[in-house]
What does this fold into?
Amino acid sequence: ADIPLSAGDYWYGIHVNDNAGNYMNERMAGVGPIHVTVTPPDTTPPTPNPSTWATGPYATGTTSISMTATMASDPSGVQYYFHCLTSGGHDSGWQASATYVDTGLSPNITYTYQVMTRDNSPSQNQGSYSASAAATTQPPPDTTPPTPNPSTWATGPHATGTTSISMTATTASDPSGVQYYFNCLSTG
It folds into this structure.
């Protein structure tokens, strides 16, 4: 029968009587008493609670962000759940690893995350979410040259003395900035 027991050690044996008064116990049946230890249910989530970051989210490319929770502890073991608060990001699902890499993200977007833990006991006690932390995926590579393309002259090459020539390119623009290179095609 299922009878709720308090935590502790219990010994069970068999003693059978028939209606004629004959009996048999566990020693006569060739078995000894059975020992059972009842432990109290686990109601405590893993520590630290709330969860914390060992390494907060950081971009590992244009479409991925990595993060690591502080290693949690619990006598029954620990699982981690990384939750993305930003649309387009992904939750990890419950996992044994304290590290999560969210992939398939969009370039140059900021994604915000939290992490929580639960233990592996039958109660699966959950802790509280960590503080939020964010990272921005890297921008896509710049494959567009500055404008105007091709370059043009604001002031073409002209002599400024017997040993000097001056010239000015049209001011170019590019989101990542611009450098100018003047190439002399004549010798000397």
Q: What stands out?
A: The longest strand covers residues 110-119. The mean pLDDT is 90.
